[in-house]
Write a structure and sequence with these properties.
The protein has 182 residues and is mostly helical. 65% of the residues lie in helices and 7% in strands. A three-stranded antiparallel sheet has the order 1-2-3.
């Protein structure tokens, strides 16, 4: 039993490379040669701050015991869906989509967090000993977990975020879903 959990260093390096390339592109697009690299008053400084925040969050996620995620998967999913539904009533419209909530000086898009919560809930459901992807009733339950947030996101008029859920089809295929579905 290792004291330190396994870390997929290739995934970490790929994330770092993508984050760095994204930051460089933002810097190149908006920099006028004035200001410090880490000035959060500028887009590239704010992006650097969010890269740092996401790195800390990723580290915390990796260090937590997997049993924690198993235990909290459904409550996290439920809270995320409730917040997503609340956006329909108290959300702010941006570019035609009522999909944002203002918190302090920030605006957040709960649909981004619901993607994580949905993946967590689907993983928890499919990890059950009795789960079989060939059982139509089990598959309908998985589809329900995925389609509930998709429908709410579509009600927010945020089709782009809803389309991302199509990635779950790749995961289901990899887990043994019959190809005729596609």
């Amino acid at each position: 039993n290792k004291a330190v959990p396994y870390v997929d260093w290739w995934a970490v390096l790929l994330w770092l490379a993508l984050a760095a390339m994204g930051w460089v592109n933002i810097y190149a697009a908006v920099s006028d040669g004035e200001g410090a690299l880490f000035d959060i008053g500028r887009k590239y400084g704010m992006q650097m701050m969010w890269i740092g925040v996401s790195a800390v969050v990723a580290l915390v996620i990796m260090l937590l015991d997997s049993r924690y995620w198993h235990m909290w998967a459904y409550p996290i999913y439920a809270v995320a869906v409730v917040v997503l539904i609340a956006v329909l009533f108290v959300g702010k419209e941006v570019n035609g989509a009522k999909a944002w909530i203002s918190v302090g000086g920030f605006a957040i898009q709960p649909a981004e967090f619901v993607k994580f919560a949905t993946a967590l809930a689907v993983a928890r459901f499919m990890s059950r000993y009795a789960f079989s992807i060939t059982d139509i009733f089990e598959l309908l339950k998985v589809a329900g977990l995925i389609l509930l947030p998709v429908l709410v996101i579509l009600l927010q008029n945020d089709t782009g975020s809803a389309i991302v859920y199509g990635a779950f089809l790749f995961m289901l295929y990899r887990e043994g879903l019959n190809g005729w579905v596609y």
